[in-house]
Amino acid sequence: MKRGEVVQRLDRIRDMSDEEVTLNAEWIRKVAAHVYCLMKQQPRMVKEYARKMNKQVRGKHR
Q1: Is the model's pTM score more than 0.90?
Q2: CA-based max dimension of the chain
């Protein structure tokens, strides 16, 4: 799975309700496995994306 696909799936997970997360647990585990592989392959890019996402999340909670 390419980086862009992983990012799109993470965005979908982030937007899910608690009920949707429960119903899609197996799919979320598969996405998490791909994220783990991506993190091992591209640590710098993942760190930059994580910082960007943290800034967005903090902005939403203010």
Answers
A1: no
A2: 34
Assigned token pair, 20: 């949707």
For residues 18-48, one letter each, b for 16 or more C-beta atoms within 10 angstroms of the residue's C-beta and e for the rest, the string is eeeeeeeeeebeebeebbeebeeeeeeebee
pLDDT digits (tens, 9 = 90+) for 28-56: 999 999 988 887 877 677 678 888 888 88
3-state secondary structure 43-61: HHHHHHHHHHHHHHHHHHC
Residue 49 tokens read as 């994306």
Contact 24, 16 (CB under 8 A): yes
Local structure of residue 53 (DSSP, 8 states): H
